[in-house]
């Protein structure tokens, strides 16, 4: 067994743990993608106050924001199959990763909807009116004029959201999927060297978070430069 | 050409338009005057449905729309026959000058990009911005932005251009460049409805003046009639206040 902390094991574990990065990345990409699409939908429902859907959206967003993601993970894992069973769809044979993707996607949609909503309302009314005045439809005005400007306004918050999502993937292992955290745990319990695995995780998470932040700051500067 | 019949509009309990009837002929330049709060801007915005009037009828060319039951299809059709120049320019901040002018053509009217670009260039040349195609709104002065706004309107070749106090937000020394562009547009025979406080423009360029107060059209006529021989007391009061120099000539 030797010492409690062996620096050589850090190097030894690193490739083993990092080899699971694609799974973490998959969760982040799906969560952000689904979050953007679904979040936009929720934001529009709420801004146009669509009957019933609006009330449902409010409830949904406050539920997601008011509960820990680990609770959401297990509610989806156990509850989703029951729900879909009602409409005759059997997903009991689904791999666990799908439940993770659904949870993180739904979770992000709620947060994104709030980001998108405030970003859209930060675009002055005159922009929408000008779009209508040149004969753009509601959807065209949104797509061509409002959203591009809202996107720029929301970019810093959006960046933070991506980093948060990346870090929150660390709970996905609780459903038993073998992402980076799952791998570190598995190695730890096999070798009784838990600490080294978590040190590796800390290094990976901090490095990638910093890279993401830098990327967003850089991208934001470029977007803004383009227009001035 | 353009006709408004019995237009009513209220914001809550505040009635802003109390049954406006208005007829504008093709190629005519109409200036709407009136004290603030008289409903001029609201009337203008009702024409392209930026405000939805409560009641009344709009006839534009061969399109006839009932304000009360206008469908979104009808609204879009009206908007594609009109254009507007705004007080605060409202250029699309995410697009440069030429993209601003092309947007209504390419996205709204599905015109091929090449042709739209040609039209946009012509429009920008006309307003004297040949060297500013690629400039973003934030890189332009107020006067230049408003000229892009005018180019964006004329490029659409609309049945009518609605001008909503186009010089009110400008520095005094930039007003002239915008007014002279508007004068050039007027000379081309484009129908214009202009809400403005620029009396010189109203006197020199307009063919027809409409004076509004408290949601009604109080008086209308040629500039000569309105400015030298106003019939209504309300019109006289307004003109005395806005043209104080006339007091000295007595």
TrEMBL record, chain A:
<feature type="transmembrane region" description="Helical">
    <location>
        <begin position="20"/>
        <end position="45"/>
    </location>
</feature>
<dbReference type="GO" id="GO:0006865">
    <property type="term" value="P:amino acid transport"/>
</dbReference>
<feature type="domain" description="ABC transmembrane type-1">
    <location>
        <begin position="21"/>
        <end position="216"/>
    </location>
</feature>
<dbReference type="InterPro" id="IPR043429">
    <property type="entry name" value="ArtM/GltK/GlnP/TcyL/YhdX-like"/>
</dbReference>
<dbReference type="InterPro" id="IPR010065">
    <property type="entry name" value="AA_ABC_transptr_permease_3TM"/>
</dbReference>
<keyword id="KW-0813">Transport</keyword>
<keyword id="KW-0472">Membrane</keyword>
<protein>
    <submittedName>
        <fullName>L-cystine transport system permease protein</fullName>
    </submittedName>
</protein>
<keyword id="KW-0812">Transmembrane</keyword>
<comment type="similarity">
    <text>Belongs to the binding-protein-dependent transport system permease family.</text>
</comment>
<dbReference type="Pfam" id="PF00528">
    <property type="entry name" value="BPD_transp_1"/>
</dbReference>
<dbReference type="GO" id="GO:0043190">
    <property type="term" value="C:ATP-binding cassette (ABC) transporter complex"/>
</dbReference>
<feature type="transmembrane region" description="Helical">
    <location>
        <begin position="198"/>
        <end position="217"/>
    </location>
</feature>
<keyword id="KW-1003">Cell membrane</keyword>
<dbReference type="InterPro" id="IPR000515">
    <property type="entry name" value="MetI-like"/>
</dbReference>
<feature type="transmembrane region" description="Helical">
    <location>
        <begin position="57"/>
        <end position="80"/>
    </location>
</feature>
<dbReference type="GO" id="GO:0022857">
    <property type="term" value="F:transmembrane transporter activity"/>
</dbReference>
<dbReference type="InterPro" id="IPR035906">
    <property type="entry name" value="MetI-like_sf"/>
</dbReference>
<keyword id="KW-1133">Transmembrane helix</keyword>
UniProtKB/TrEMBL annotation, chain B:
<dbReference type="GO" id="GO:0015424">
    <property type="term" value="F:ABC-type amino acid transporter activity"/>
</dbReference>
<dbReference type="GO" id="GO:0005524">
    <property type="term" value="F:ATP binding"/>
</dbReference>
<dbReference type="Pfam" id="PF00005">
    <property type="entry name" value="ABC_tran"/>
</dbReference>
<keyword id="KW-0813">Transport</keyword>
<keyword id="KW-0472">Membrane</keyword>
<keyword id="KW-0067">ATP-binding</keyword>
<dbReference type="InterPro" id="IPR027417">
    <property type="entry name" value="P-loop_NTPase"/>
</dbReference>
<keyword id="KW-0547">Nucleotide-binding</keyword>
<feature type="domain" description="ABC transporter">
    <location>
        <begin position="2"/>
        <end position="239"/>
    </location>
</feature>
<dbReference type="InterPro" id="IPR003593">
    <property type="entry name" value="AAA+_ATPase"/>
</dbReference>
<protein>
    <submittedName>
        <fullName>Amino acid ABC transporter ATP-binding protein (PAAT family)</fullName>
    </submittedName>
</protein>
<dbReference type="GO" id="GO:0016887">
    <property type="term" value="F:ATP hydrolysis activity"/>
</dbReference>
<dbReference type="InterPro" id="IPR050086">
    <property type="entry name" value="MetN_ABC_transporter-like"/>
</dbReference>
<keyword id="KW-1003">Cell membrane</keyword>
<dbReference type="GO" id="GO:0005886">
    <property type="term" value="C:plasma membrane"/>
</dbReference>
<dbReference type="InterPro" id="IPR017871">
    <property type="entry name" value="ABC_transporter-like_CS"/>
</dbReference>
<dbReference type="InterPro" id="IPR003439">
    <property type="entry name" value="ABC_transporter-like_ATP-bd"/>
</dbReference>
<dbReference type="InterPro" id="IPR030679">
    <property type="entry name" value="ABC_ATPase_HisP-typ"/>
</dbReference>
């Amino acid at each position: 067994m030797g010492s409690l902390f062996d620096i050589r094991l850090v190097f030894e574990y690193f490739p083993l743990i990092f080899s699971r990065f694609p799974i973490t990345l998959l969760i982040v990409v799906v969560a952000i993608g689904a979050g953007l699409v679904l979040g936009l939908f929720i934001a529009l429902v709420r801004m146009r106050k669509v009957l019933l859907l609006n009330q449902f959206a409010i409830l949904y967003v406050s539920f997601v924001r008011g509960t820990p993601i680990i609770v959401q993970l297990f509610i989806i894992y156990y509850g989703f199959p029951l729900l879909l069973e009602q409409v005759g769809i059997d997903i009991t044979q689904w791999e666990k990763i799908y439940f993770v993707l659904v949870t993180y996607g739904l979770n992000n949609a709620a947060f994104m909807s709030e980001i998108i909503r405030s970003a859209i309302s930060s675009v002055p009314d005159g922009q929408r009116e000008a779009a209508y005045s040149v004969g753009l439809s509601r959807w065209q005005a949104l797509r061509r004029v409002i959203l591009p400007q809202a996107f720029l306004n929301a970019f810093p918050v959006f960046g933070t959201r991506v980093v948060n999502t990346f870090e929150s993937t660390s709970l996905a292992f609780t459903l038993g999927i073998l992402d980076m955290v799952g791998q570190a745990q598995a190695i730890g319990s096999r070798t009784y060297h838990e600490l080294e695995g978590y040190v590796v995780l800390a290094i990976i998470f901090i490095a990638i978070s910093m890279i993401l932040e830098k990327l967003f700051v850089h991208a934001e500067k470029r977007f803004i430069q383009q227009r001035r | 050409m353009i006709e408004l019949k019995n237009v009513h509009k209220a914001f809550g309990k505040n009635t802003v338009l109390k049954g406006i009837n208005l007829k504008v002929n093709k190629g005519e330049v109409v200036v709407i005057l009136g004290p603030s709060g008289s409903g001029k801007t609201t009337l203008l915005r009702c024409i392209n449905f930026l405000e939805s009037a409560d009641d009344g009828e709009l006839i534009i060319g061969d399109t006839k729309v009932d304000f009360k039951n206008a469908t979104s299809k009808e609204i879009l059709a009206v908007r594609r026959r009109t254009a507007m120049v705004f007080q605060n320019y409202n250029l699309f901040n995410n697009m440069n000058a030429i993209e601003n002018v092309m947007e209504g053509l390419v996205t709204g009217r599905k015109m091929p990009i090449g042709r739209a670009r040609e039209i946009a260039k012509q429009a920008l040349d006309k307003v004297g911005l040949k060297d500013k195609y690629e400039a973003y709104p934030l890189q332009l002065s107020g006067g230049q932005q408003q000229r892009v706004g005018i180019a964006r309107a004329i490029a659409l070749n609309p049945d009518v251009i609605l001008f909503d106090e186009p010089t009110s937000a400008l520095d005094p020394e930039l007003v002239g460049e915008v007014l002279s562009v508007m004068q050039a547009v007027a000379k081309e025979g484009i129908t214009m409805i202009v809400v403005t406080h620029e009396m010189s423009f109203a006197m020199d360029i307009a063919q027809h003046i409409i004076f509004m107060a408290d949601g009604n059209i109080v008086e209308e006529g040629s500039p000569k009639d309105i400015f030298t021989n106003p019939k209504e007391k309300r019109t006289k009061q307004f003109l005395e206040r806005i043209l104080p120099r006339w007091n000295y000539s007595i």
